[in-house]
Amino acid sequence: LEPSGVANVAKILEVINRFPPGAIQKKVIVLVDPTRFKAIMAMTFPFIQESLNVADVIAINKIDLIDGTVLEEMKKEITGVTRMAKFAEISALQGRGVKGLMEQVEEKIA
């Protein structure tokens, strides 16, 4: 769990992966804010791309604030710069999609 959003997730994983296989169960979830996505990508692209590349799930929050076209464009942009990852579309405020996100987390670590 790295809540600041400014850590190098790949470096954290390097440390975790030093443990023996099976010693630590992990799933990397990168939380993306669509209202600030373009600005953040423009300012810190290599850093953000690295975090997106190690994600098992990319959770797009605040879907209640954007329309479907913006959501699909954002997913297309993310897919264009990352390896394959699953998307979870959520609105934490409204509780939409949160159960599905938790199911994706449990899918790998259960």
3D architecture notes:
With 110 residues, the protein is mainly alpha-helical. It has helices at residues 9-16, 37-53, 68-81, 98-109; strands at residues 29-32, 57-60, 86-89. A three-stranded parallel beta sheet has the order 1-2-3. It starts with 8 loop residues before the first helix and ends with a helix. The model has no long low-confidence stretch (mean pLDDT 83).
Rg (C-alpha, Å)? 14 Å
Main beta sheet strand tally, sense and closure: 3 strands, parallel
Q: Overall pLDDT, averaged?
A: 83
Number of DSSP strand runs: 3
Query: Which strand order spans the largest sheet, edge to edge or round the barrel?
Result: 1-2-3
Structural class: mainly alpha
Shape: globular
Provide the helix percentage: 40-55%
Name the helix and strand elements from N-terminus to C-terminus, one letter apiece. HEHEHEH
By DSSP (H or I, 4+ residues per run), the number of helices equals: 4
Spatial separation of the terminal alpha carbons: 18 Å
